[in-house]
Amino acid sequence: MADPKDTINIENVVASTGIEQELDLQSVAMDLEGADYDPEQFPGLVYRTQDPKSAALIFRSGKIVCTGAQSTDAVHESLEIVFGKLRDLGIPLPDDPEITVQNIVSSADLGVDLNLNAIAIGLGLENIEYEPEQFPGLVYRLDEPSVVALLFGSGKLVITGGKTPQDARDAVDVIAARLSELGLIELPAS
Asked: How many other β-carbons are positioned within 10 Å of the β-carbon of residue 87?
């Protein structure tokens, strides 16, 4: 079995920031090329960046949520593009708006099939949710790091709720160690 940490891939980074003022989204939408604003469908204006690829959700309150980026660096680059576009429209912004990573969603692969029934019993019902009739994965809530992992019978994992890329690495280590302790997977000799 290869090191599952080598299979970790960041799928989505969600971050938030604010520009400390209210915005007239209708006016911004008319002036900002490529912006989507349909208040009947969604209360925010959607502005997509292509390089790096992401979507900024800009709200009337001045709050901005960036989603779809595949790294924390890409979030910062995307938001710098958005800040630049807003400044170009004559909207005064703070010099260095604080950007907070809210959620990093990562995937990984343990490289072996998993017996989710045995895992559900072994990990104990207080930390897991497993209803195969409702959802094909097992939901495992970890305390340290504070993330939620979805485990699938294929050995694939989805880790959500991380604040740093390291959280996914730590979660994979914890999950692999727990499953090894339960005799449900074999870890490679280190």
From this structure: 12
Tell me the CA end-to-end span of the chain in Å, nearest whole number: 11
| pLDDT digit string, tens, across residues 92-142 | 999 899 999 999 999 999 999 999 999 999 998 888 999 999 999 999 999
Indicate if the pLDDT at residue 80 is higher than 90: yes
Strand-pair category, 128-129 with 100-109: unpaired
The Cα 187–Cα 181 span in angstroms is 10
Instruction: Assign a CATH topology to domain 20-96.
Output: TATA-Binding Protein (3.30.310)
- The pLDDT of residue 188 is 67
As a 3-state breakdown, the chain gives helix, strand, coil percent values, each rounded to 5, of 30, 30, 40
Ranges for all domains in the chain classified under CATH 3.30.310.10: 4-8+103-181, 20-96
